[in-house]
Amino acid sequence: MSRSAHPAGPRHADVLPDPPPAPPQADANALDPAIWPVTACRDGGVLHLGGAAVPDLVGRHGTPALFLDEADLRARARAFATAAAGVDVFYAGKAFLCTTVATWVAQEGLGLDVCTGGELAVARAAGFPPERIALHGNNKAVGELQHAVLAGVGRVVLDSFEEIRRAADVASAAGIRQPVLVRVTVGVEAHTHEFIATAHEDQKFGFSLRDGAAEEAVAAVLDSPALELAGLHSHIGSQIFDTAGFEVAAGRVVSLAARIRDLHGIEIPEIDLGGGFGIAYVAGDDPEPPRQTVERLVGIVAQECARAGLPVPRIAIEPGRAIVGPAMVTVYEVGTVKPVELDHGMVRTYVSVDGGMSDNIRTALYDAQYTCVLAGRESDAAAVLCRVVGKHCESGDIVVRDAWLPGDVRPGDLLAVAATGAYCRSMASNYNHVPRPPVVAVRDGADTVILRRETVEDLLRLDAGVDRG
Ligand SMILES: *Cc1c(COP(=O)(O)O)cnc(C)c1O
């Protein structure tokens, strides 16, 4: 007998909305340009992306599938890269990485952040210029450090004292002087609309400012002939709209740079403020354009340096989500539609699609919000409150928690979910042995598979017990 047993029902799947869902938008068919990729439009009622009709794309590639608007991604990458002189932009590959996207961001003038040997291998397979690659991570294996150092990566971001020793040993054995950044934990935790500034942070990354660890780490790097101190690094969070958190972080990093000058008589060449720039997922999300963000950060660092009497260093930033997030759309096929009566006579329509938490874990993991529309047709039917759910054996398998869809939504409809470029395919799993969806790039009416659909055969190939005759 379980003491936490309760009647099946609303509590079980946490279906009572809190806070209540936003009211339906005036037109359930509309495509908010703040949310959808730059080429998204309706033509004859049908959603088009990159000049191609989504039903045609689905005819060729099936569902679920992620469609990547190349023009959208390139425009965002370019906007960051050209926003201001003296700023190095590194695309955070963990948001989404494959060789094609690595090639595009290289062409647009960006560098690339990787944080594992696997991501580094993709960058290398793409022929990404190694001097523009940065290796991150709080627990890099010796093999990963060797791979990075021998490949000639431009910077390794150091995260612990063990790692400083390991990196020094690896570089020294290779006869290389490796440029490194010291990752500093500045005590700023930023979220969408607020940030928390503390003296201390209870998390695994970086060297703390408060207990002197950051200064010690800098001293240890300066003591290692095989390491070259290229700068200081800070990353304060993700999906941030408000730059006040960056202001506090930059102030603290610049103060550290001033102390380093006083202690060691050296100037810090670069300050990396990390990523985390927010995007619009739902109506009302209002991120500022890349150029404005970059100009603001440059202004903040310049002001803090002036206050500390330091020359302005190079500035680096690491946007991931803000480059790839809005560029992709996931298209599913609706399989079942089930109205469920809730308390107070309210009805919620459960719309089941042919993917779910295996291709988008963000709703389950972070309570993320998304926007979706019917992709194959328009409808005048009055909007009903829906919850878009997947096909997995979990009541938490939710793709869109609260969606207003036309009341005639039915099996066979195509459903497009916006802004799924970041942390969806890259965090995808094979839960329930559901193969991971493909990523198809679209541009000027032409579509190209850049990551093919996984098959059940792919999965069975890993099963050592399968008899292959
Ligand atoms: C995750 C991460 C980023 C990118 O974050 P976004 O929210 O995708 O911009 C950048 N830098 C570091 C160190 C990160 O861990």
Account of the protein in words:
The structure is a single chain. The protein has 469 residues and is of the alpha/beta class. It folds into two domains: 41-69 and 326-461, Lyase, Ornithine Decarboxylase, Chain A, domain 1 (Beta Barrel), CATH 2.40.37.10; 82-324, Alanine racemase (TIM Barrel, Alpha-Beta Barrel), CATH 3.20.20.10. It has 13 helices and 23 strands. The chain has helices at residues 10-13, 54-61, 70-81, 99-107, 117-125, 142-151, 161-174, 213-222, 244-264, 290-308, 321-324, 362-366, 456-461; strands at 41-43, 46-49, 52-53, 65-69, 87-92, 111-114, 133-135, 155-158, 178-185, 188-190, 195-197, 207-208, 227-233, 270-272, 314-317, 328-341, 347-353, 372-374, 383-389, 398-406, 414-418, 439-443, 446-451. Strands 4, 16, 17, 18, 19, 20, 21, 22 and 23 form a nine-stranded mixed β-sheet that branches. Strands 5-6-7-8-9-13-14-15 form an eight-stranded parallel beta barrel, surrounded by eight helices. Strand 8, helix 7 (161-174) and strand 9 form a beta-alpha-beta unit. Helix 9 runs parallel beside helix 10. The chain is globular. Bound molecules: pyridoxal-5'-phosphate (PLP). Pyridoxal-5'-phosphate binds next to helix 11.
SS elements, strand count: 23
Report the CATH C-level class of the largest domain.
Answer: Alpha Beta
Distance between the termini: 48 Å
Number of domains: 2
Unique ligands: pyridoxal-5'-phosphate
Q: Helical percent range? A: 25-40%
Count of helices? 13
Q: Identify the CATH architecture of the largest domain.
A: Alpha-Beta Barrel
What structural category do the secondary elements indicate?
alpha/beta
Averaging pLDDT over every residue, what do you get? 93
Determine the CATH superfamily of the largest domain: Alanine racemase
Shape: globular
Rg: 24 Å
Main beta-sheet strand count, sense and barrel state: 9 strands, mixed
CATH topology of the largest domain: TIM Barrel
* Model regions low in confidence, pLDDT < 50 over at least 5 residues: 1-17
Determine the strand fraction and express it as a percent band. 15-25%
